Structure formats: structure tokens, C-alpha cells
Sequence to fold (442 residues):
Amino acid sequence: MRLSRYFLPILKENPREAEIVSHRLMLRAGMVRQQAAGSFSWLPLGKRVLEKVCKIVREEQNRAGALEILMPTIQSADLWRESGRYDDYGKEMLRLQDRHERDMLFGPTNEEMVTEIFRSYVKSYKDLPLNLYHIQWKFRDEVRPRFGVMRSREFLMKDAYSFDLDFGGAKAAYNRMFVSYLRTFTRMGLKAIPMRADTGPIGGDLSHEFIILADTGESQVFCDRDYLELPVPGEATDFANDGEMADIVTQWTTPYAATEEMHDEVAWGSVTEDKKLSARGIEVGHIFHFGDKYSKPMGAKVTGPDGKEHAVSMGSYGIGPSRLIAAIIEASHDEAGIIWPEAVAPFDVVLINMKPGDTACDSLCEKLQAAYEKSGHDVLYDDTDQRAGAKFATADLIGIPRQVIVGPRGAGEGTVEVKRRATGERDVQKVEDLLASLEATA
Fold:
């Protein structure tokens, strides 16, 4: 992609409305455009990151056995009346009527709708376990949306819903999602700590929030430092092995960890002083088990092996990809801009032509661009006629992991300069060596 043809509206000054780092950098880097309070358009650079995040989320949900569907954003109020939540949910729910004066709502979550889908088709325990997920836009009318996409009114959510015959099956489903979340956040370059949490308006009796530690976090959290060293399950993890899943969850829930709402001073006192870690945290995922809270009033029952009908035991599991992007930036940035982990970077390489129009520079840049793309890398080619300082500032601001700098002298000598954004390390490489390494990975 040539930068001269790309829509990247960079802002030189910090926007006055941006209160935290991620909001400021997302606006400055041309990732989003605020349309109203808590409402954003995702511009090309931001959309690329959003797609990378969703891809990882999908891969790990699929790995754990969840099946993807897609449910509407507008829901019937009748479903919510069945569950008893329509009048209880509060002003965060955006209520509306269609042209026939039927009560509708813009979904803040999907427990009712997915339960209706389940009860329409699943009648026997032989069709369990089942876990359905989708990635869809949600709306919650926050009284004070702030911090950019960190706490917006309209946001993208991956929400999964598990259905099992009894608590034993539901706990196994919960464990699979727990492990899936550990892998998901690790792949994005984050260290997420599962903490006991309040279930809130979703309901239920078992809940964990996955928290990353960041100075700009919304809430105070408390945990044992052992979490920083715990091994994250690898690709060989067998999600079909309930025992293996349970062992991993036990390992990751034995040390103390709790959000401020669930903090227990007595239990905290049993943690040695050198292991205590009290910090600010950002929630990046939340999982719940709530049993028959929705299945019972909505008649989501299956015939069990005993021949009797049983209200299924359910759980729900949320990750906000749009919010997650802000959390990644909060955890990975410096004074110059964003530092993207490679797995979610909008481009892998930014190729900087220091003298567009120079035959040697243009020729080498085009050769390098073709080689990188052939080896599977996404390339942003800065072919603009900006001065060098502006090119470097843009590259640092948007946070692409590798910068490959091509100047007239280097082009003449057959060398380029390669900078790693995360460390600032610079290395002069021979073009022939760089091309050979790319050819080997093509």
C-alpha cells in the first residue's frame, strides 16, 4: 500500500478532548474519527488493527470448540420481557419502537436472543455441549462515555454463550473459555490476569475478569506477583481434555487476584509482602456462569438421559475487540507514539523512501516492497514527498514494528537501514542479505 494513496489523516497536535494516551494516539494516528459522544468511525488504519484482533479472537474461539453465528443488533423487547430483564436493565439500554409501534431495543448483550435460538432447535442432551459466539456491535447508553473507545456507547463485542445439561458440563465449558482467553490475550502481546469479579447485570454466581496492568487503568486491582511468571497454555493444549482444562484453571486461580469490588482484606493479608501487587488495571475480557437464569424463564430445556426435561446450564463470555485496541495501546506506547505487538499491527513493515523520484531509491523500494509482500508481509510504502523528520515521526506515531529506510547513499551502496520500533534499535543491512532472508520465508 502506497502512503500517497492511503487515507491516513495524521494530527500533529494532541486533541483537547482526549484524556488518556490511547484516545490521544488513536486520534492522532488517524485510526478513528469521533462522530458523537461515545461513537466512532473506524478509519482504514484502525480498521486493519480491528480485523487483526478479531482474527485472533476467532481462531482461539474456534480452537476451543465454539461455533460462530451472527445475530442482529436490534432485538425484540418481548424476549427481554420473557427473561425479566427488560424493566430491570436500566437507562443504559436504548429502547425504540418500529413503524408498527412494537417495542424494540439496540442490543447491549445477547443472552435472550441466543437462548431463543437454542430453544428453537435443541431438544436433547445428545446435542450438547454447545457454544455459540458472534462478533457484533453493541450499544450501551453510558451516562458519561469517555476515554475514547475504552468506554464508548457503541462498541464491537465478541460474546459467546455455552449450553450444557448440568453444572458439571457448564463448568467444563467455562474452563475451556478461561483457557481460550489466556491464549487470546497472550497472542496479542498482553499479560492478562484472571481476577474474581462481580457479575453485574448479566447475573450468575461464577465470574472472572481478565485484567491487564496499566497506569491508566480504570480500577484498582490486587494480585499475587506469581501471576507474572505463570506459563500460558501453548498450541498443543487439548481443549477436549476436561481434566487438562481444569488443571490449568486451578493453576491460574490459586494465587490471590481480585478486582476492587471483590477484594478480601483477610485473604489479601495471607499474601506475603514481597508478593503483593496493587495496581491499576484495564478489563479486556469477562466470563460468567449463570446456570438457568435465562434458560428456565425462557423454556430452554432438553431431555436428559433420564428422560426428563432439564433447563440447560448456561454461561457467557465477552471480549470487546474495539476496547481491546485501546488497552493494547495503553500497555504499549512511548512518547513518540504507538508500539504495536506484531500480531495486531496494521502493517508489518513501513518502507520509507527518503528521496521519491530518485531512480535508484524508487527502484529499490519497489523491489523491497514486492519481496516483503511475496514473503507474506503487509507493507506500507511511504512514497510521499514529506521531509525526513515528518516521515520518521509518522512511522513512529503509527507504530509499525519494522521501519526499512531507503536513502540515495544506501541505494547506491546496496544497503538499507532497518529500525525496530519497539526497541529503537537500528541496523544497516545489505540489500542482498535482506532479500535472501525474505526469499527463504516466502
Notes: The radius of gyration is 25 Å. The longest strand covers residues 276-291.
